[in-house]
Design goal:
Layout: H1 4-7, H2 14-18, H3 43-59, H4 81-88, H5 99-102, H6 109-132, H7 136-157, E1 160-161, E2 177-178, H8 180-198, H9 216-233, H10 241-251, E3 262-265, H11 279-284, H12 296-304, H13 310-313, E4 314-315, E5 321-322, E6 325-326, H14 342-347, E7 378-379, E8 407-411, H15 413-427, H16 430-451, H17 467-483, H18 486-500, H19 505-515, H20 540-545
Parallel strand pairs: 5-6
Antiparallel strand pairs: 1-2, 3-8, 4-7
Length: 571
């Protein structure tokens, strides 16, 4: 969809981001006289910046690029909403045994700044210019992005500023918090406005549409799919959510085909300033080796069930883990010399090390960083553009596999199937739920397999799973679902939901809080890690500079759509 020339536009975005700070509050309000003013900047430049900063909200960045508003750092280097969510839902490792100390208020500044000083500020500065030029499709895309961004801010923080920030002409230095429910309502209306702008055939196209290359039928379907997401999200507090969800499904105007997925494609044309590789690739395929630890829970689940996606998701740098086939090693894997905690033994959780070379960490393992960067399992081909696992067991380097030509999945056809499965479960339509779980799996594995094209880099693709292996796994899913009680059926749905959404921690974190499943998640190594986080602390800078923001008593406060009596049990 994109090419190198299009991505070169990102090199000039630094000037667009400096002056926009005067459009928001709680942050630096000083304009830089050396930078462009809104009157000097083109609408398309603004929208390039908006699209880039939007995806950084979810993926973070890898190189502290000054051309964007995402500062990096926080809980994990280069983190974004996806990384926070994957850690909490055991699809990557959470480094720390107490929730309250792992996710602190100071860790949230980067997401907050990027959202308000980056995306929203640019939208406010761009909109009057676009209105004057009658560039309504530009406005429609910015409205869609604003809606997606703000529901995500609600999902992670709860009540956040909105109405007193959206008017660029009025500087409010202490904007009040809007309720999450009211923001969700407003975003549904904003999506209706976006759809109307997408349908304006007289409006000019974008110079660079990073998502759909100016195909506005696809933008309409994406907007309706975002509505589906909203209705599923708030189904616990909205008695009409099911009917609203069904109305969109019945219209047929939503993402049904993987080719129409709303994704960001990382072209990997540059490794710095800006780094256009997938951030997780940039942070892991280094001379020192991998930076992230993969989740022992997820790797064990996929390995023991012969999940055909495992070789695409994970790359093993060694064939054996200390304590399994080879001797324990205190320096490389401290836990290989220790025994499992009693609550792990009681619940049958895997502990410390896995067979077949899957070298990761348990949930809450905070043992520090040994010299295992060129040994531990890391991200594979999908979705970050890494290396396909062909049993070569070689250490990674800075240029491997797809070289970082990864994707950020946001709204997908397989995701819609899993949403439909969830709504069917809620309605008690077990047969439909089963059908949609398997449909979601089919789309997921097909997308993962197709992703290897052009990213093999000499890998032995004979290790790809064949049709029999793919069908056998589907049969196993269906059998497990059929044989389970109702909680077990929810566990099957949840596990498949988590596996398919690998890399997208927003969806897994929301699903886990919304449903409480899967109950099979590995517990924290700490027997009493504190209450599971149901919303993040407000950022330190926001609390210190805005008199209308009072810090939460704890991170156990749920967001408005989470009316469950307690946090999920798999703490």
């Amino acid at each position: 969809m994109r090419n190198i020339n299009r991505y070169m536009t990102l090199m000039v975005l630094g000037g667009l981001l400096a002056f926009t700070s005067c459009e928001t509050t709680e942050l630096d309000l000083t304009a830089n006289p050396n930078q462009l003013t809104p009157e000097q900047a083109g609408v398309d430049f603004f929208l390039n910046s908006i699209q880039e900063d939007f995806v950084l909200e979810f993926e973070g960045n890898a190189d502290f690029d000054l051309n964007d508003n995402f500062q990096g750092g926080g809980v994990t280097l280069g983190d974004g909403f996806n990384e926070l969510g994957t850690q909490l839902t055991r699809t990557t490792n959470m480094l720390g045994r107490q929730y309250a100390t792992v996710y602190q208020a100071s860790d949230m500044d980067d997401e907050w700044i990027n959202a308000y000083r980056g995306v929203l500020a640019d939208i406010r500065a761009m909109t009057p210019l676009a209105e004057k030029a009658e560039q309504f499709k530009h406005i429609g895309i910015s409205q869609f992005i604003e809606a997606y961004l703000m529901i995500s801010m609600v999902d992670f923080f709860g009540d956040v500023p909105y109405t007193e920030i959206i008017q660029a002409s009025n500087q409010v230095f202490n904007p009040v918090l809007d309720s999450g429910a009211s923001i969700y309502d407003a975003m549904l209306l904003l999506l209706d406005e976006a759809i109307a702008n997408f349908n304006n055939t007289s409006a000019p196209d974008l110079a660079v549409d990073f998502f759909y290359d100016n195909d506005y039928d696809k933008w309409v379907n994406a907007a309706n799919t975002l509505k589906l997401k909203i209705y599923v999200q708030r189904r616990l507090v909205d008695s009409g959510a099911g009917a609203s969800f069904d109305a969109i499904i019945n219209s047929g105007n939503y993402i049904q085909d993987t080719a129409d997925d709303f994704v960001w494609n990382w072209p990997a044309t540059s490794a710095s300033q800006p780094d256009t590789r997938h951030p997780r690739y940039g942070l892991n395929y280094t001379a020192a080796g991998a930076g992230d630890y993969m989740s022992n829970w997820l790797m064990n689940l996929m390995d023991t069930t012969d999940d055909p996606r495992i070789r695409y998701y994970f790359y093993r740098q060694t064939s054996a883990v200390p304590g399994v086939s080879i001797a324990p090693d205190e320096e490389l894997l401290t836990c290989s010399f220790t025994t499992a905690p009693q609550h792990y033994v009681d619940s049958g959780f895997t502990f410390c090390n896995l067979p077949n070379g899957y070298w990761g960490r348990d949930h809450g393992n905070a043992e520090g960083t040994p010299p295992d960067g060129l040994l531990r399992t890391t991200w594979g081909t999908y979705p970050v553009g890494g290396r396909f696992d062909d049993d070569s067991f070689q250490a990674i380097s800075v240029s491997e596999g797809g070289n970082g030509t990864g994707i950020t999945n946001l709204l997908t056809a397989f995701g819609v199937d899993f949403m439909r499965a969830e709504m069917a479960m809620v309605d008690g339509n077990i047969a439909n739920a089963r059908t949609f779980i398997l449909a979601g799996y089919d789309k997921s594995v097909a997308k993962v397999q197709a992703f290897l094209t052009g990213r093999t880099a000499g890998a032995d693709i004979s290790f790809e799973p064949n049709a029999t292996a793919i069908n056998d796994y589907a049969t196993a899913i269906g059998t497990k679902f059929d044989d389970a009680d109702m909680d077990g059926k929810w566990d099957v749905l949840a596990e498949q939901y988590f596996i398919a959404h690998y890399g997208n921690g927003v969806e897994t974190y929301n699903f886990y809080r919304r449903t409480g499943f899967p109950t099979t998640l590995q517990a924290n190594l700490e027997p009493d890690p504190g209450t599971f986080i149901r919303s993040m602390y407000y950022p330190t800078n926001a609390v210190n500079t805005n008199s209308n923001i009072t810090q939460k008593a704890s991170q156990s406060e749920p967001v408005f759509w989470d009316t469950n009596p307690s946090a999920p049990v798999a703490n």
